[in-house]
Amino acid sequence: MPNLKDLKNRIASVKSTRKITKAMQMVAAAKLRRAQESAEMARPYAEKMEAVMSGLARAVGNAEGAPRLLAGTGKSDVHLLVVMTAERGLCGGFNSSIVKLARTRIHELLRDGKTVKILTVGKKGREQLKRDHADKFVGHVDLSEVKRLGYADAAGIASDILGRFDAGEFDVATIFFNRFQSVISQVPTATQIIPAQFDAAEDAAEDTGPLYEYEPSEEAVLEDLLPRGVATQIFAALLENGASEQGARMSAMDNATRNAGDMIERLTIEYNRSRQAVITNELIEIISGAEAL
Amino acid sequence: MAKMQFDLVSPERRLASFEVDAVQIPGADGDMTAMADHAPMITTLRPGVLRVEGAAGSAETAYFVTGGFADVAGPSVTVLAERALPVSEVTAEMMDGFIAEAREALDKARADTEAPQNAADAMAKLLSDMEAAKGHMMG
Fold first, then answer.
1. What is the pLDDT of residue B129?
2. Residue A43 pLDDT greater than 90, yes or no
3. In whole angstroms, what separates CA B52 from the centre of its chain?
């Protein structure tokens, strides 16, 4: 039987753990609200961008000499996977679910004889992928110093990726991130960003839209917009990821707090039982001592 | 005068959304003013000052914008700018920062001999546009 002192220490330590997880949960809840707000505010820009680009892509997309960002390189031999994860752990399955999705994709691509390159954003994804795919890494973006995610961060990542594309380092780029659905549900998602893809169903619906005039020209506008589109998609993904991370952390910490509560209850019962046993023992000793006299 | 809906959005937030009479847009090929029922068009922006006329209330009427495009469509004008700030919030230091950034990009484009010539030209234009915009705002 564990002695009373040990039990008491256990209870005290679980209690302080509970305090920490409770605090982390509350911090995550506050951050989640902020993250959701920024994701919300970024939406009009992203939606408009997408609408204009898909309209333009329809107009010039199939023409000869369309921008490579739209038409692609004509091959799909080298794939760049941009894996976005959190900088910190303690957020449930958030990081591993993205990594799992990326891993599955890596295996599929390798099986098909493609070359895979990996660019990670966030420390956790890099740690997990380094284990078996260290040879495929081409870069890592560290966002641990970033307090509040801005468009400039996304633009930096985008220009890195675009630079690699211009240098002919890859043919297809895909980003991996968690789409925020609710506090308890985040969906790991893979989106192809280069060459740009647009929803076919949406295209059909938009055909009735007004006929636009483009200044300076359709090609020039598209040329200008495509790199911005890449940055916008990355920014949107980073924001979704940020909200998802806080949501995942919040529910993970909520669970941890509840578990700690259960544990304290169990330990307290055990503590009381042993305390009673000790008292009973002492009484028996006294009584039998008295009887012997 | 017929009003039209004006929206100014940056990647991070929506800066303005109200009804106006006319919007003066710093288009890539020159400034243009869009009023209600303008023919639908899309133009890219150069760094410059975007002005709105006839806005209700005390809303901001001038914004400094860089990079992006304007979507003019009959009853509405939507401007998507990579960076957008009310002119009243822009300081000379900020402009100097933007100009330094543009200059750096220009130097890089010039140093990179493999880059196409028009990349350097584009950067040079960006730089002069920035300087002009600063002159406009700071007087």
1. 79
2. no
3. 12
Residue A189 has pLDDT above 80, yes or no: yes
The CA-atom distances, in angstroms, between B138 and each of B49, B62, B82, B120 are: 12, 13, 21, 27
Min Cα distance B138 → chain A (Å) is 25
Of A70, A91, A221, A237, the active-site residue reads A91
Amino acid at site A15: K
pLDDT for position A40: 87
The string of pLDDT tens digits covering residues A122-131 is 888 888 898 8
Question: Chain B within 8 Å of A167 (Cβ-Cβ)?
Answer: no
Q: Residue A16 has what pLDDT?
A: 96
Any idea how long chain B is?
139
Mean pLDDT of the region A83-89: 89
Measure the CA–CA gap between B67 and B81, rounded to whole angstroms: 6
Q: Which residue has the tokens 């002009």?
A: B132
**Quick check: A150 contacting B, CB < 8 Å?**
yes
> Which string of DSSP letters, residue by residue, matches A5-56?
HHHHHHHHHHHHHHHHHHHHHHHHHHHHHHHHHHHHHHHHHHHHHHHHHHHH
Q: State how far the Cα of B74 lies from the Cα of B58, in Å rounded to an integer.
A: 25
- Interchain pair A215, B43: CB under 8 A: yes
Q: Which of B35, B20, B29 is nearest to B48 (CA)?
A: B29
- Cβ partners under 8 Å of residue A205, min gap 6: none
Q: What end-to-end distance do the CA atoms of chain B give, in Å?
A: 31
Token pair for A64: 């000869």
pTM (two decimals): 0.85
Share of chain B above pLDDT 90, in %: 6
CB–CB contacts below 8 A, A to B: 76
Annotated active-site residue A91? The verdict is yes
Asked whether the beta carbons of residue A220 and residue B44 sit closer than 8 angstroms, the reply is yes
Bridge partners for A51 per DSSP: none
